[in-house]
Amino acid sequence: MSTQTATPSTPAASSSPSATGERSSLLRLYLGRGVLAIAWAAAFAGAHEHVDAVAVTLLVVYPLIDAVSSLLDYRATPNGSERRVTAFNGVLSTLAAIAIGIAGAGGVASVLHVFGAWAVVSGAAQVVVGIRRRGPELGKQWPTLISGGLSFLVGITYNIQAAGDNPSLDVLSVYATGGGVWFVLQAVLLTWKNRQLRTRTA
């Protein structure tokens, strides 16, 4: 019979330098991603009346922002399934940007179909990443999970709207604003988590 006893984890042990670095990287990433999404929404709100070169350029830029964010996230994330999902999302967003650029020639309905399909798959991927990150180091990830779930559901409605009589791109500004707010909220919660862990280890 073994006489070894489990050593209880201490707050200092549960907050390793690598975990602290990951939190800091994600905090900056979420904050930047959120601010860019809100800025994009403001720009697109005044430029989407016609699907012209400016509108299509903005439409292509939005998934590219997500692709770059996924690349930065990938580089800051340890090896594992979470990292693979992040890489998948980066590739997906890059392909979505290309597809949206092509769909721009087909008008509002085509763009909304592609954007909706991207929102569904990327939202599902975001939920998976949020679930993987839940824990004492990065918190419960509720903003990430809610944002991903909403993206999934909203993407379905976009495809339904695109098949209707009067599809509109107005909804995309709302989508980006909502996503940006959730990213900023996740950054705020990570800031709170950092302070909480520093207080415990002080």
UniProtKB/TrEMBL annotation:
Pfam families: DUF308. Keywords: Membrane, Transmembrane, Transmembrane helix. Residues 1-20 are annotated as: Disordered. Signal peptide: none annotated. The chain crosses the membrane at residues 30-47, 53-74, 86-105, 111-130, 142-160, 172-192. The keyword Nucleotidyltransferase does not apply. The keyword Transmembrane applies. This is Integral membrane protein.
